[in-house]
Amino acid sequence: MKKPAATIDALRLRAIATEKRALANELDGCDVVAARVERHEAAEMEKAADAFLALPPGTSEVGNGGEMEPAGDDAFDCPDLVDTVTRSPDLVTTGPARRG
Fold this sequence. Notes:
6% strand; 2 strands; 2 domains; elongated
């Protein structure tokens, strides 16, 4: 299995892993070994995708509305995002609800 090089690759790995788990469920009754192999491959794919997609520790925080907020030096690059979360949390939570 090739490790993901971009976000789209990691998302594809997750999708393929989901398909492999479904195939493993179908194979359970007739080929237990193949089902086990499919599940193992799915787990490896999910592990690689999750490792690629994981945010480095300390780079973001969860804001009041459950959204991601820049942290550390990144927060100074986008002060308007931090301002929205810290000073007007109601706009963060109600804005998407009105658009949805």
